[in-house]
Amino acid sequence: MESFNGYEETVIWSPSQVFLDKEIGRGSNGTIVYQGTYPRGHRVAVKRLSEDQYNAKRQGYDTLKSGGDDSVHIVRLYEFQKHENFIYAMVSLCEYDLHHLVKSKWLYAELSEENGYPKPYLLELMRNVVDGLQNLHRNGIIYGDLNPSHVFIHKTQIAKLSMVGSCRCLAEDETSLRSDDTIIRGEASWGSC
């Protein structure tokens, strides 16, 4: 254990000197997400991907890294680091996701009127999601796996889309994708064809 900013941290391999504090989530295909801290105290989420996962979505990640993430409603991608057979992506750290917000009956009640209609804050979160999708589409990225666990709520109380799994990039001359297969994409409970 090493002491940093007044609390104990475990240093598992640290990309760009990011201290990996603890595991905060797991995704498909062995993806692990850690909470991390840069030496000057900036907190980030560190997503560990296999090289195959990264290479399959490289164009989308490259688009975001080169400025395609100019919307405040996209989880910010800071950098990538390679270590052994994994790619580590340092991204914005968010407090929770929309899935947890909706599952929390108390919190959800705070976001809904008595008649079941959404309160203004919930409507604003929906606008945030639409803005994030518009930004991705302007950059030729089709999201493909929009579900509550991929919409994160930042500490500033705005919604941010995670750049994840089923995103696909359009070629420069394409405006849409067509798929003749019936492969389900995304998570089993939220998949799309």
Q: Could you write a compact summary of the structure shown?
A:
The chain is α+β, with helices and mostly antiparallel strands and 193 residues long. It contains five helices and twelve strands.
Task: Describe, in plain words, how this protein is organized in 3D.
This protein is of the alpha+beta class. The chain has one domain: Transferase(Phosphotransferase), domain 1 (Orthogonal Bundle). Helix content is 25%, strand content 28%. The protein is built from five helices and twelve strands. A five-stranded antiparallel beta sheet has the order 3-4-5-7-6. β10 and β11 form a beta hairpin. The longest helix has 19 residues. It is globular. The termini are far apart. The N terminus and C terminus are likely disordered.
Please give the share of residues in helix.
25-40%
Number of distinct beta strands: 12
Chain-averaged pLDDT: 75
- Based on the structure, what is the oligomeric state of the protein chains? single chain
CATH superfamily, called what?
Transferase(Phosphotransferase) domain 1
Helices and strands: which structural class?
alpha+beta
What is the architecture at the second tier of CATH?
A: Orthogonal Bundle
- Biggest sheet strand order reads 3-4-5-7-6
Describe the sheet with the most strands. 5 strands, antiparallel
- Strand proportion: 25-35%
